Amino acid sequence: MAASRTRAVLATLGVLSVCAASRSGPVTEGETGGEAEWAEPWDGAVFRAPSALGAVGVARSPETLWPGREEAVDLPVLLWWSPGLFPHFPGDSERIECARGACVASRDRRVRRDSRTRALLFYGTDFRASEAPLPRLAHQSWALLHEESPLNNFLLSHGPGIRLFNLTATFSRHSDYPLPLQWLPGTAYLRHAAPSLQERAEWRRRGYAPLLYLQSHCDVPADRDRYVRELMRYIPVDSYGKCLQNRELPTPRLQDTATATTEDPELLAFLSRYKFHLALENAICDDYMTEKLWRPMHLGSVPVYRGSPSVSDWMPNNHSIILIDDFESPQKLAEFIDFLDKNDEEYMKYLAYKQPGGITNQFLLDSLKHREWGVNDPSLPNYLNGFECFVCDHELARLDAEKAHAASPGDIPVPEPHIAQPSHMDCPVPTPGFGSVEEIPESDSWKEMWLQDYWQGLDQGEALTAMIHNNETQQRKFWDYLHAIFLKRNQNL
Ligand SMILES: *[C@@H]1O[C@H](CO)[C@@H](O)[C@H](O)[C@H]1NC(C)=O
Ligand SMILES: *[C@@H]1O[C@H](CO)[C@@H](O)[C@H](O)[C@H]1NC(C)=O
Ligand SMILES: *[C@@H]1O[C@H](CO)[C@@H](O)[C@H](O)[C@H]1NC(C)=O
């Protein structure tokens, strides 16, 4: 196992910060390469008075923007506990105006214990049980933004992990602020014309395979390479990424990911030569769909897909992608792709959604129409700001409900707690891409890495719950456990 990977695993466990003297901040394994190096703005030792928020923290505004509110009220504060995600510039605190009223968004950790600080916002990728802000304060909501797959953090795929939070924005339609279509700019993107069949037939004659695979992140929870390797025995696949590579992209510029990003027009034109794209997500979670699915559709290639089990709910019509799991074996799938490859009429049915009126899925159309944020659309807010306002509005409503209860406790009950649910991050235990888990040797890197990560996520969640509830027995057990793992890993380094 690579040393860097071990580090990442240890960081996931919180072991680096617990058992090792020095620590180098959160280690993330992002497919986009967005390595977060977030400085800790506060050493945690001193608590400064609430004036840290300065003028932005108090609404002493003469212009009564929200009739009914007091003239001089302290605005609720939303503290971004993951400061690297703070969506404002410059400064550490900013007044935000939302549908229900105003809040102060801050990344200044000194306000953490302030009574006005009503919500803590976390980014899932670098949320670590050992770094959680404890003790948890009863008046504060915890809000989670995690649009990524559990590849970065399996803690949140378990009940005890996700239920730590009150509000969520995840890829799931069930989350409080859902982001399932985070990679789909809109219907025009889907309608983009496909190259002609003649053009594609010409590429096939020149020796190109019917299927393309382009993946450089090889060892992932979904274990996709194991399936693709098997499929390659039955049908030609041109593979250009680092995983199962058997071909080079045509020019040095395209080969260099630094010069040709995945949105590079020349690269996209090249990829569109292929009639089918293998599109396998890095993890299997309900509603987790990425550019691996939408980009081939944009290019007019048919995705051969494995990912969200409910992907069909979001497709433009009921005949636009090929689902790997509909086939009993890679061989059967290969036969079907070969059949479509030789039968233009049947193949073209998969691109019918590009015709006028071809997008018939009303659920998809409504979801695109009603989401308030945009994808690569400067005219719309992004979902980071959108979620921030969602939390602000939620907290203003919660304050109002608390005030109403305080005013007439006999008539108006205490507001119900709002707690996130496992459906907000529904990623079951990883299974092998091909074959059964029993057939795979214990030394297999996928088994060693992802199955362990998955169950360690559960341990973290349970440990954190215990710490919040001050269960010392459970806590001690957890630290002993971490220590044992640390020693074991250290021996293997
Ligand atoms: C797909 O939709 C069409 C038109 O609504 C319908 O006639 C057909 O039965 C559907 N096919 C499947 C496999 O659901
Ligand atoms: C937030 O969630 C926790 C469970 O993790 C719960 O105990 C608490 O009451 C919730 N708070 C609010 C304000 O809903
Ligand atoms: C602490 O956790 C353990 C193990 O989950 C449980 O058996 C025990 O009842 C808990 N103790 C308290 C005081 O909640």
From TrEMBL:
Compartments (UniProt record): Endoplasmic reticulum membrane
Keywords, alphabetical:
Disulfide bond, Endoplasmic reticulum, Glycoprotein, Glycosyltransferase, Membrane, Signal, Signal-anchor, Transferase, Transmembrane, Transmembrane helix
Gene Ontology MF annotations: alpha-(1->3)-fucosyltransferase activity; peptide-O-fucosyltransferase activity
Quote the InterPro entries the UniProt record gives.
Answer: Alpha-1_3-FUT_met (IPR017176), Glyco_tran_10_C (IPR055270), Glyco_tran_10_N (IPR031481), Glyco_trans_10 (IPR001503), GT10-like_C_sf (IPR038577)
The Fucosyltransferase N-terminal domain, residue ranges: 77-180
Span of domain Fucosyltransferase C-terminal: 213-356
Q: Does the keyword Repressor apply?
A: no
Kindly give the membrane topology term recorded for this protein: Single-pass type II membrane protein
Q: Which residues form the signal peptide?
A: 1-21
Q: What does this protein do?
A: Protein O-fucosyltransferase that specifically catalyzes O-fucosylation of serine or threonine residues in EMI domains of target proteins, such as MMRN1, MMRN2 and EMID1. Attaches fucose through an O-glycosidic linkage. O-fucosylation of EMI domain-containing proteins may be required for facilitating protein folding and secretion. May also show alpha-(1,3)-fucosyltransferase activity toward the innermost N-acetyl glucosamine (GlcNAc) residue in biantennary N-glycan acceptors. However, this was tested with a library of synthetic substrates and this activity is unsure in vivo.
This protein is called what?
A: GDP-fucose protein O-fucosyltransferase
